[in-house]
Design brief:
One of its GO terms (molecular function) is transcription cis-regulatory region binding. InterPro entries: HTH_LacI, LacI/GalR-like_sensor, Lambda_DNA-bd_dom_sf, Peripla_BP_I. It comes from Galbitalea soli. This protein has a 6-stranded parallel sheet with strand order 2-1-3-4-5-11, with helices on both faces. Strands 7-6-8-9 form a 4-stranded parallel sheet, sandwiched between helices. Strands 10-12 form a two-stranded antiparallel sheet. About 40% of the residues lie in helices and about 20% in strands. Helix 9 crosses helix 10. The chain has 13 helices and 12 strands. By secondary structure, the chain is α/β, with parallel strands linked by helices. It has 3 domains: about 45 residues, Orthogonal Bundle (434 Repressor (Amino-terminal Domain)); about 130 residues, Response regulator (Rossmann fold, 3-Layer(aba) Sandwich); about 140 residues, Response regulator (Rossmann fold).
């Protein structure tokens, strides 16, 4: 700073006021120009650590996650948070702990030492989480999870709306006898998607038939194994809990000589691009809003989006129609 002051012919106090954009500082335009030119010529950068000590916080936002950086689609949470942080002049510090409690404690401690503006705490799938006590030493927002005790602001997917939207993709194609293959593992997605399925049927005047709902392990093998039970139900369409389960069902239907969507329409959930977009035919599905979860978490943390101290904000899960629900099938048949 002294070098800049000498080159510009002003005091270090003047340089400091210009760099920190001191409100009300009575500094002439010529002095400001000379200081800016000296900064450019000398390549001066302010001392970020010193500024942090002065202002009490830094331009960093922390993100602590259990495994989202290593999952194929939940990593979009980081992408959304990073883009939103940059937009507002912040840098995202990411710690991927792989569920290791000691690594999690160390990561949060390091972020607090660096006086982060706040911390996003995220899980790779939507669930209840135990909020680390150290998080309460700063502003924090839960992303893709919510606290066991109902405290803290949380941003989560609207599973209920997503289940309703998935079922509507099939109803819109004229299907009236629709099965739902749910997951065996307890989670907000399991209960929320079932509620949405029931709501969509009710809104169309279709009575809920519990015989059309059954469970399978939510992976490819689970979907493959569910085919026999599904085919005994006399249904024309099926909503699968996730895309991996739908992928297994594709295999089983194809093995039995059945065509999708002509013989059985199929809708998934998650919109895992590596699966949904590359199945044949491409899978109609509902997307989890991972990118927007991360972006919204930053906006709530910075106070750009208002949220009550214990608010749970649910983000819509948008439809991603492709071909497996039968989109355009009636037109193709007519032609």
């Amino acid at each position: 700073m002294r070098d800049v002051a000498d080159a510009a012919g002003v005091s270090t106090a003047t340089v400091s006021m210009i760099i920190n954009d001191k409100k009300g500082a009575r500094i002439g335009a010529d002095a400001r120009r000379r200081v800016r030119e000296a900064i450019d010529e000398l390549g001066y950068r302010p001392n970020a650590l010193a500024q942090t000590l002065v202002h009490g916080s830094s331009r960093f936002i922390g993100l602590v996650a259990d495994a989202i950086a290593t999952t194929p689609f939940a990593g979009q949470i980081i992408h959304g948070a990073q883009d939103e942080a940059w937009k507002h002049g912040f840098v995202l510090l990411v710690a991927n702990t792989e569920g290791n409690e000691e690594a999690e404690r160390d990561a949060i401690s390091m972020m607090l030492e660096h006086k982060v503006r706040g911390i996003l705490y995220s899980t790779w799938f939507h669930r209840a989480a135990e909020v680390p006590e150290a998080l309460r030493e700063t502003d924090f927002v839960l992303v893709n999870c919510f606290s066991n005790d109902g405290t803290g602001r949380a941003i989560v997917p609207d599973e209920r709306q997503g289940g309703r939207t998935a079922t509507e993709l099939l109803l819109q194609q004229g299907h009236r006898r629709i099965a739902f293959i749910n997951a065996t593992t307890p989670a907000p997605a399991r209960t929320g998607r079932l509620l949405g399925y029931r709501e969509a049927l009710a809104a169309t005047g279709i009575a809920f038939d519990p015989a059309l709902v059954f469970e399978a392990y939510p992976d490819q093998e689970g979907g493959y194994g569910a085919a026999e039970q599904l085919l005994g139900l006399g249904v024309t369409a099926v909503f699968c809990y996730n895309d991996r389960l739908a992928m297994g069902l594709y295999d089983a239907l194809r093995q039995r000589g059945l065509a999708i969507p002509e013989d059985m329409a199929v809708v998934g959930f998650d919109n895992q691009e590596v699966i949904a977009a590359h199945l044949r035919p491409p899978l109609s599905t509902v997307a989890l809003p991972h990118y927007e979860l991360g972006a919204a978490g930053v906006r709530v943390l910075l106070g750009i989006d208002a949220a009550a101290p214990d608010a749970v904000i649910r983000l819509a899960c948008p439809a991603t129609p492709r071909e497996s629900a039968g989109e355009g099938l009636a037109d193709r048949r007519a032609s």
